[in-house]
Amino acid sequence: MHLGGHCPGCGGGEGNQSCATARCGLDHGGVEYCWQCGEFPCARYEGEEYDSFITRQNRLADPEKARRVGVEAYQREQREKSEILRLLLDHYNDGRRKRLFALAVNLLELEVLHQILERLSAEDSGQPLQRRAAAAAALCKEAAKRRGADLRLRKPPGKSAK
Questions:
Q1: Helix segments in 41-97, DSSP class H
Q2: Cβ-based neighbours of 52, under 8 Å, separated by 6 or more
Q3: What is the rounded average pLDDT of the residues 28-35?
Q4: CB-hemisphere CA count at 13 Å for 86?
């Protein structure tokens, strides 16, 4: 996951710097994707019931999907999802929806996201930002509920998601 050319996971700049995931791939024969490793899924995928700054809800499903549809198709879908997130943030974020939109784009299927955008486009007739943001949030929550997706970061007990 790169945002603005940087991986927020390690907080580093360009390249993998001291990225534990990249280092693990090198230690296991230079595999590019976890699912290419003979040990996948390994201990790195265990005990991840809580999220950090991004959700880990698809942590096993995403590599499986990349394996099933192929890396190029998976990357194409991720680029398209990235563009959808950028569009939501640019046109429907009132300053309070970044996490919700990021989770929705991560957890909902591409087809569902396109349906949300179509509805927003049809309803967006010069509405003020607050109203557009509320409508986008409601559509994302509604779609997530229908699919059993949780649009909240899972935090350990005692820690609140801001």
A1: 61-69, 71-92
A2: none
A3: 85
A4: 9
| Angstrom distance (rounded) from CA 134 to CA 86 | 17
Residue with token string 């994707």 = 33
Per residue in 53-62, pLDDT (tens digit) is 566 677 778 8
Least trusted range by pLDDT, from 8-12, 19-23, 33-37, 135-139: 8-12
pLDDT at 1: 45
User: Among residues 125, 145, 144, 102, which one has the least CA distance to residue 8?
Assistant: 102
CA dist 74 and 70 (Å) reads: 6
Spell out the residues 6+ positions from residue 76 whose beta carbon is closer than 8 angstroms to its own.
Answer: none
Residue 6, helix vs strand vs coil: strand
d(CA 38, CA 31): 10
Q: Is 128 left (phi over 0), alpha (psi -120 to 50) or beta?
A: beta
CA distances from 134 to 47, 96, 101, 143 (A): 35, 10, 12, 14
- 51 token code pair: 């999220």
Helix axes 129-147, 98-107, angle to 10 degrees: 40
In one-letter notation, the amino acid at residue 72 is E
Strand partners, 3: 6
**pTM of the model as a whole:** 0.76
